[in-house]
Amino acid sequence: MLRVVRSLLIVSSLVLAGPGHAAKTPAKAPAVEPTLAHNLDVANEARLAEIIERYRKETGNSIRLVRIEKGDKPATLNLLSRYQMSDVLSQPKDFVPLHSMMSRAGVPLSLSLSEVLKPGVTDARGRLVALPVLYSTPVLFYNKNAFRKAGLNPDVAPKTWFEMQGYLDKLQSAGYDCPYTSSWPVWVHIDNVSAVSGVPATDAKGGLRFNALPQVKHVAMMATWSKARYFRQFGHGNEASQRFRDGQCAMITTDSREHADFQDARGVELGVAPLPYHDDVYGGRRPALADGPSLWVGAGKPAAEYRQAARFVSFLLSPEIQIELVRNHGGLPMTEAARLASLSRLLQDGKQALDAAYASLQGKADTPSLRVSNVDGARIIADEELSAVWADEKPAKAALDTAVSRGNSVLGARPALKKVQPF
């Protein structure tokens, strides 16, 4: 229809120009190409590029991918990991709320997030300030082939950390030098173990408090596992994930979305279970936390860029893309269409990971929603102290006391970091 209208306009201009007058061809408006900044690895950058290419083919619009460089002003859109949230919190004037951009661009923003996805991306009125893109929660992945070799039932994973020790002993006896490992240690063993134990790692005012008895007992238990070589640490990020993919490690706790990356793991028949819990804490098992990369809007861009960026956000929220993000990238469903699709045959390959993630997230969460892993300075300190415990250089209580004290000093010097989100 649009092409027909344009043709009629051109014909009309020729007629109105009359004989002997050349019609003026309207000047073509320069293409508007908002930027999307990220720091994804090569594989995930390629996946994002595929989505952007699909957007270009379907809409005729374009988004330019750029790398996030330290010190640069934010791009029009910025895909930030949980470990980059300190930049947003400490520089609120460099960003604008997502709902504000969408409203000014005249593009509807209708998204009913579940409660577990809201912390950090909604304001006090429930409006979206950023878009959660690939949220996940920690789960336990295990190699069913390793379980069979160790004489364990491949369909039954340990539910508690106490049960897990027996599994680790059998796996080690079966020849596994790495019975268990973990990616993202602070995210898993500070933020989430604290939440699941009902003793949040932070308080309602944004102070750190992950040195209570349940956290000390957990980290001390991990220290004994490290001495016994039941547990192996390979880094502070996702370095351990490659060891599981290679079949070197029999179990790993990491983001549920890594299910998509483990599908081609060598010699691994994948099993997934909820994050284990401590059954001796008051109140029983509490829900784990959901977190992950989110899309933030940079401030000070031309209105035309914001209009195009708003259209891209709307494209990301379309049912087809939401289903693709769940199926191909392992994210938790954000929209009702994606949630319904997760129960259908469309997503059967990833259904066991989603089932485990949902099981981990069930229950009533405690109020504090600031995560230690979202505060860069505090996370680095906590990583250092955890590594010292697991290397048998420091007792658990002293290490966690130090991590809390040093982390609170960081927050005291930069109080903006105590916020869940900047607006």
Question: Can you offer a commentary on this structure?
Answer:
With 423 residues, the protein is α/β, with parallel strands linked by helices. The protein folds into two domains: 35-135 and 291-361, Periplasmic binding protein-like II (D-Maltodextrin-Binding Protein, domain 2, 3-Layer(aba) Sandwich), CATH 3.40.190; 138-288 and 364-418, 3-Layer(aba) Sandwich (D-Maltodextrin-Binding Protein, domain 2), CATH 3.40.190.10. The protein has helices at 2-17, 42-59, 85-90, 98-105, 144-149, 161-173, 185-196, 213-227, 239-245, 259-262, 303-316, 319-329, 336-341, 351-361, 376-390, 396-413; strands at residues 35-38, 64-67, 77-80, 95-96, 131-132, 138-143, 178-182, 231-232, 249-255, 270-274, 294-298. Strands 1, 2, 3, 4, 5 and 11 form a six-stranded mixed sheet that branches. Strands 8-7-9-6-10 form a five-stranded mixed sheet. Helix 2 (42-59) links the parallel strand 1 (35-38) and strand 2. The protein is globular, with a radius of gyration of 25 Å. The chain starts with a helix and ends in a 10-residue tail after the last helix.
